[in-house]
């Protein structure tokens, strides 16, 4: 009998997302809003369920014990020395420091935009996810998926931009990978960056620590990255050129942590899905109520104009150089002052507070006093923004 | 003056690859052979130059000091405890254990193939790169780039397959990312997996340790993964169905290390570009001469037949469940016996030896005694094999 080279039939459990409703993946499943969240919660989390993953943070934080358990189980043949313990820096891991890991793929379109490009964005995005875990960056990996026919000069330009962004942060790219797909099977260039960082002892930032009375601080103007990208795509022209706010938030976060210490409860960079999706996710996972003051939200006039033109709510538009810090009220002013003393946080403001409603909802108070419940982004209005 | 939203002009150093010769990226730049290597060495390494990267291994190995330097520089506010030092497992990091990091994107086509799918391949591939650093796996990250319109059922099937492969290795997926690109801008599904592992004290496997007289051991039959994929693409039929050898090599490598200890000098899984490219890379970077005995290379008859039909040299065809071990001669028999005692290494053989020519060349002795210099894969004969 001649067996043909076909694949085996799948006989596992059925897809947990009803395929009658969602037979295929849609752009909105990657837009950072409610459909993205459904895909993660219904399909990905059940598959990969484990304690680190279910925290749903920007990255995973691993205790040193997790690492050592793997190594400790081995036979450890050959030489062994305690010499490294003599260095003072080992005190950090001894004192309960943990390893932070984060991964992101970047599919932004266009690849080059005012204020940055896919390379700098990929470095900043991953550095920021580490920072949001309270981690100091240690290493980056870079994996490229290139479409056949992509200009070699453009590849060099992107790689140069990655180098500059990584060097500015003092973080080495320690390993990488390159794949090429046929013309028409990619879109120029996709980049994955994975980041490793160390969370010092005493730093514990996670949505679960948000508590009633906490101040919600925002490091500056919102919706800038998203509207910079959209203005290029839509060919909009303004008095002032819109530039992406893409930036490494690490130094600002260090200042926040140095000032706030344990009073810093949650950190989050509101990227895909904007400030609305980030706050809704935190509120939901912490079962915390939030009240936002819409008047306090900094939206530059040209960004507001572009949002109105395109029918977008600035709260749903992506940021790549802004940070939300949820902090204990007794330290809020000191932390706000510290943020404002740093160039990346010069426009930092108090935008709201955790309430004692514990309903997982974010309420926005409008300038005329009305209240509405803030929803995360649900559609696909800004695909491929990062 | 109205400024338009254009990007800034690039004014950095010129592309180090002559764009007159290579104006664009070609499929061969991703095929794992000499053009891939040119792209890495001329364009990527100069951009990201640092000691960990320039080792050109399957992954990077970071000393604990590198991690601690990042954490130790911080103010470390708040609580600090030495409690974790009480656990015996900390002895591993204290004794000079290091962290291994590896990243790979998978663009294999078709997504489902005999013996596996893109999901199991992505997990095995990254676990194997960790194993080739002598590391025990600790954590995986998973980043998906999905094409709009991809069947939800197929996504579930892939994710289920990743889960099964990760669970079999006992490694958690600790964080992830999902992006969706428009129809026609991707090819169903691309997956990036990044792996973290711990290299126990005393384990030091790196191409630079290859030395004259060392035995070159191969864990089993070659070219099986590549020909399983190609037989599906080309619609070939054989007496026996060709199944990919995709597998987690971690347990086999543990057995090799437990038996060989410091006598294990180099480990490598010959994936893209096949055994030829892997050996040429090791020979070149170690400036070692190698002599291979072609008769000793295990090539199953149906694989040989398929290779002849398609005009391919089995030495250039990808493997996803095979391992090359370069070991000191005084331990070669013990290591070979240990490999053969494990199911993944039952067909392990001695295929050659490091010579004292130190010319960075791999010479193959044919069954009739002739010698030829082995070249790495140069073309694009097997695009998207992983």
List the topology elements.
The structure is a homodimer of 386-residue chains.
Chain A (H helix, E strand, L loop, with lengths): L33 H15 L2 H4 L5 E4 H9 L17 H5 L3 E9 L5 E2 L2 E2 H15 L3 E12 L4 H18 L3 E9 L7 E11 L15 E4 L5 H11 L15 H11 L3 E5 L5 H13 L2 E5 L7 H10 L13 E4 L4 H9 L8 E7 L6 E4 L5 E3 L13
Task: Please give a quick description of this structure.
The structure is a homodimer of 386-residue chains. Chain A has 386 residues and is an alpha+beta fold. In chain A, 31% of the residues lie in helices and 21% in strands.
Question: Would you kindly provide a written description of the structure presented here, covering whatever features stand out?
Answer:
- The structure is a homodimer of 386-residue chains.
- By secondary structure, chain A is of the alpha+beta class.
- Chain A has two domains: 27-199, 60s Ribosomal Protein L30, Chain: A (2-Layer Sandwich), CATH 3.30.1330; 207-374, PurM-like C-terminal domain (Phosphoribosyl-aminoimidazole Synthetase, Chain A, domain 2, Alpha-Beta Complex), CATH 3.90.650.
- Chain A has eleven helices and 14 strands.
- A seven-stranded mixed sheet of chain A has the order 9-11-8-12-10-13-14, sandwiched between helices. A five-stranded mixed sheet of chain A has the order 1-2-7-5-6.
- In chain A, helix 5 (118-132) runs parallel beside helix 6 and helix 8 (250-260) runs antiparallel to helix 11 (332-340).
- Chain A is globular, with a radius of gyration of 22 Å.
- Chain A starts with 33 loop residues before the first helix and ends in a 13-residue tail after the last strand.
- The relative contact order of chain A is 0.16.
- Mean pLDDT of chain A is 86; it is low at 1-7 and 71-94.
- Chains A and B meet through helix 1, strand 1, helix 3, helix 4 and strand 2 of A and helix 1, strand 1, helix 3, helix 4 and strand 2 of B.
